[in-house]
Specification:
The chain is mainly alpha-helical. The chain has helices at residues 13-20, 33-39, 49-73, 79-108, 116-129, 134-146, 169-172, 175-196, 222-246, 248-274, 289-293, 304-307, 315-320, 326-340, 351-361, and strands at 281-282, 298-299, 346-347, 364-366, 376-380. The protein has 15 helices and five strands. The radius of gyration is 22 Å and the shape is globular.
């Protein structure tokens, strides 16, 4: 530039990451949930049956087209090309079906329509087809939203205090150990959580999402848990008949591998939304609902943000107003950002890089030494 001018120097990658990792405030916010809600345009809370169903039709249509192409044309390809075509199908189909999963999740929040029965029917059908126990997960997930950020009462990805982590943890905090941990988490994490409550809240006895009499549920919910189990059995029987007619390998290629992709993204999205070095967790002496709801982070998955119906980059708004339809969540997010200020956390780090970083940095939580607020815990990885 000319005399007296000043070059505009963009922030370095190191400075940007330092800003992203800066701790969010953990004191009582200077705003209330009511003030946040009043700032959001009223239409953002309105649910439209035609619009909600349009996303179901859109996703299922794309899924069917992918299925039709794979089953009718892949066998015509040269043998070597089929080894390329099938993985592409698995990846794209898995991402599309993750979008279907998100819509069913929205039904569980009563964000699909104004009619609870319709929401439950749609959610039950869609989730059962993805081998998810709809009502079982709906109720445990509701408790997660009611207790987000609580070390004692949150339901999923509850971090351990340093005194509670296993002896083996320090031996896994290295590249080979993280590869092993992430591989197991992304492949087995979801079924292990459903069947054995792995990474979930600690209960006094064995907890399982398929057990209507387990400690996760109360007496009013037990019949619905049975309905979820029946839905899974019906779909499992349908898959058995398909395998008998077309072969097990056909079912695995067409349905099984894409389902593994769905499960991996489900676990990864949940993990990254609630696991971040900048986010606090609270014990009962400090926790309150609003601070807990703010202890989550919006992430950027690129084009997958749209494929996943923005559950990834509007998660803070989702935790504040879980009955808001996904198609209004981005508008609401843009409105509430200035109000939340430093309490709003967004991390644009590519998700595969963030996954590795969080697996490295977020091993356990502990309170800062000398901090007067002993009930506030932060992630650490030092042994």
């Amino acid at each position: 530039m000319g005399a007296g001018g000043r070059m505009s120097v963009p922030p370095s990658a190191k400075n940007l990451e330092s800003e992203v990792l800066k701790r969010v405030p953990h004191s009582k916010p200077p705003f209330t949930l009511g003030q946040i809600k009043r700032a959001i345009p009223p239409h953002c809370f309105k649910r439209s049956i035609p619009r909600s169903f349009s996303y179901v039709v859109q996703d299922l249509t794309i899924s069917f087209i992918l299925y039709y192409i794979a089953t009718n044309y892949f066998h015509l390809l040269p043998h070597n090309l089929s080894y390329v075509a099938w993985p592409i199908y698995w990846a794209i189909q898995g991402c599309v079906l993750t979008g279907v999963w998100v819509i069913a999740h929205e039904c569980g929040h009563h964000a699909f329509s104004d009619y609870q029965l319709l929401d439950d029917i749609v959610g039950l059908v869609l989730h059962s087809c993805l081998l998810v126990p709809y009502f079982s997960w709906k109720h445990s997930h509701s408790r997660h939203h009611s207790n987000t950020g609580s070390l004692e009462r949150d339901e999923v990805f509850v971090p351990k205090k340093k005194s509670s982590i296993g002896w083996y943890s320090k031996y896994l905090n290295n590249p080979p150990g993280r590869v092993l941990t992430l591989t197991v988490t992304l492949t087995l994490g979801w079924p292990l959580y459903l069947a054995f409550n792995v990474s979930g809240r600690r209960y006094d006895r064995f907890a399982c999402h398929f057990d209507p009499y387990g400690p996760i549920y109360n007496d009013r919910e037990r019949t619905e848990i049975l309905i979820s189990d029946v839905g899974l059995l019906a779909v499992t029987y349908g898959l058995y008949r398909l395998a008998a007619a077309n072969g097990l390998a056909w079912v695995i290629c067409v349905y099984g591998v894409p389902l593994l992709v769905v499960n991996a993204f489900l676990v990864l999205i949940t993990f990254l939304q609630h696991t971040h070095p900048s986010l606090p967790h609270y014990d009962t002496s400090e926790w309150d609902w609003l601070r807990g709801a703010l202890a989550t982070v919006d992430r950027d998955y690129g084009i997958l943000n749209k494929v996943f119906h923005n559950i990834t980059d509007t998660h803070v708004a989702h935790h504040l107003f879980s009955t808001m339809p996904h198609y209004h969540a981005m508008e609401a997010t843009n409105v509430i950002k200035p109000i939340l200020g430093e309490y709003y956390q967004f991390d644009g780090t590519p998700f595969f890089k963030a996954m590795w970083r969080e697996a490295k940095e977020c091993i356990y939580v502990e309170a800062d030494e000398g901090d007067q607020q002993k009930g506030v815990y932060w992630y650490n990885n030092k042994f």
